[in-house]
Amino acid sequence: MKSLSLWVVWGCFCFAHLTLTNSEEHNAPEDLLVLTVATTETDGFKRFLRSAKHFNYTVKVLGRGEKWQGGDYMTPGGGQRIRLLKEALEEMKEQEKTVLFIDSYDVVFASGPKELLKKFQQAGHRVVFSSETLIWPDRHLEDKHPHVREGNRFLGAGGFIGYLPNVKEMVADWAGEDHDSDQLFFTKIYINSEKRKSINITLDSKCRLFQNLNGALDEVVLKFEDSRVRARNVMYDTLPVVVHGNGPTKLQVNYLGNYIPMVWTFESGCTVCHQDQRPLAGIQESAFPLVMIGIFIQQPTPFVTVFFERLLTLQYPKNRLQLFIYNQESHHTKQVDSFLTSHGGLYHSMKVVGPAGDDTDSVSSRNLGLDMCRQDKECEYFFSLDVEVVLKNKDTLKILIEQNLPIVAPMITRAGRLWSNFWGALSAEGFYARSEDYVDIVQGRRVGVWNVPYISNVYLVKADVLRSELTEYGVFSSDTQDADMAFCSSVRSQGVFMYVTNMHSFGRIMSVENYQTQHLHNDLWQIFENPVDFEERYIHENYSLIMQDKIETPCPDVYWFPLFTDVACDHFVEEMEHYGKWSGGGGADKRIQGGYENVPTIDIHMNQVGYAGEWHKMLLDYVAPLTEKIFPGYYTKGGGCRFIRYNCSVEAPRKGWALMHPGRLTHYHEGLRTTGGVRYIAISFLDP
Ligand SMILES: *[C@@H]1O[C@H](CO)[C@@H](O)[C@H](O)[C@H]1NC(C)=O
Ligand SMILES: *[C@@H]1O[C@H](CO)[C@@H](O)[C@H](O)[C@H]1NC(C)=O
Ligand SMILES: *[C@@H]1O[C@H](CO)[C@@H](O)[C@H](O)[C@H]1NC(C)=O
Ligand SMILES: *[C@@H]1O[C@H](CO)[C@@H](O)[C@H](O)[C@H]1NC(C)=O
Questions:
Q1: Which CATH number does the domain housing residue 112 bear?
Q2: By CB count within 10 A, which of 144, 222, 314, 366 is most buried?
Q3: 16 CB under 6 A from ligand 1?
């Protein structure tokens, strides 16, 4: 095995129809035996078996339960594979057998035995090895390799097919150690021209049978067609039958730009294929698993109050939810406390960590939260949720649980950007690499559940996985990597698969950049950084209707429309009172911005509270489009007032509604007497 897992999921060939006919009676599919070595049943191994089963391959697994001695990515190894193969072959007597020997942790079948055998026969040799673009482990052997007319020149030990007697002959001389390199052993046989001829070995240089992906990502694309997926090697125009996601040896990276979902929809709709991975039919109301929600507040973040309001509306029984809240910011303590005081009692349990008197940092809090679930026998899932995530889909938790996967994230994106909370591929150094289909997935042109090498911000982990594979306490800790990357690399190195689903729309993530904390209601300043969140919080829910509907006109040429939510009005007023430096002639009204004489008011200008730019943007985004609609070329202000020339009054102003009318020339007006309380008016003069 050259790598432990592969980010190609070849999960689903639901409607695969093979049209090839087998003209070789003496080489029937039932004579093909697939041999593979797997000492542990990783997710990658299960995936391999699923694809083998789907195409009706007969598979014999060698080394089950044995301790793996054959090295890992870091060092050449794999001698154990040859020893196990040799032992297994010695027991086999039927000379007619054809043997396919391949890795399994990072391999999937793309087609069935008939096609494989046909291509094997067409190769005209007794043993056919997979080929590699890169030579390893010993580059000095390059010159000894025979030249090939077209295609890859080097041998790949990760997969070969051959007739039993020839394969037996090939491994007969094996006397190496388990940690010796199988790659080197087979390479030496191949570059020995006598042995090559006598055993009758060739390479599958153009990837007709085997596709090794190491160094060849650019050659391979996925074809989604007729409800079926295949990899195509575009360099040689071939459709390989076996796809092997071997990767670079450094950093334990499984790199693979191309992956195939467990479940995917393809025009005709969603298909779920594999019994052992079939999503749960739906959680029984009586048996909701106990889930620990880990909420992480790691920086000053906008709309934290909204986050908690949304958390309350998550569709899941609260007595089946445990809360673990890490708050690094004293700025947010009030919001956390207020949520817990009002609603904490509804939940199964709660624990808050940070910020004061506590040296837990953001990495150790993640380790701690995960471990609380790991140690609690009742805890069945850990749902990690960063506070900047905006989960719009109230059923998210149920949907994820129903996927029945070890680790699964709902795909979220940043409004209007290609940013998302998963990576399609890794670079050789373990950083982000864009996969061929990343954009299609982010934009929803390909929909499914995708096996990916990195997820972040929001994901669900099965507690079983914490107790069997991710048993180490410090999965988020690393000397060189951030917590998110350290976690994903821990997961990958344990051979556990991570998935992301874009089968529903789940929500988005906010930007935490440029978040000011010096105001009372800092969220008001978010119109630039998080315009979608600003709109949802502050712009009246019926604002968008006015572009279609007729706008109310209480007086001639006076337009009346909903603009702000109640919350926006309260926040503006509280913000101004908080600032407190009212100035002007006095009177019953307080005006935000201002500057004209008929209305007795005291004023605060937007620029006094540092809101001029935001206010201007608000006018441009929400008021300007209307002025263009109703007065092509003319603009003005709003309030609660009487238009003297028309002897017409708007007497019961509605909170958050705006009045818009032409200015003083035609609509000279006065404020009506305030009969009780304080009236707050926000005023703007719009200049065309
Ligand atoms: C596998 O075998 C089953 C039963 O013999 C058959 O129904 C199915 O079509 C086969 N699958 C393929 C991909 O050939
Ligand atoms: C290799 O095997 C093929 C098929 O069995 C045979 O036709 C060919 O002559 C053999 N080549 C050599 C060099 O033995
Ligand atoms: C928005 O309009 C609908 C339909 O007229 C109304 O029922 C609802 O109360 C309005 N929302 C608000 C916040 O006024
Ligand atoms: C203004 O209108 C009111 C009633 O709508 C009426 O009683 C009043 O006489 C009018 N005033 C003028 C100056 O027209």
A1: 3.90.550.10
A2: 366
A3: yes
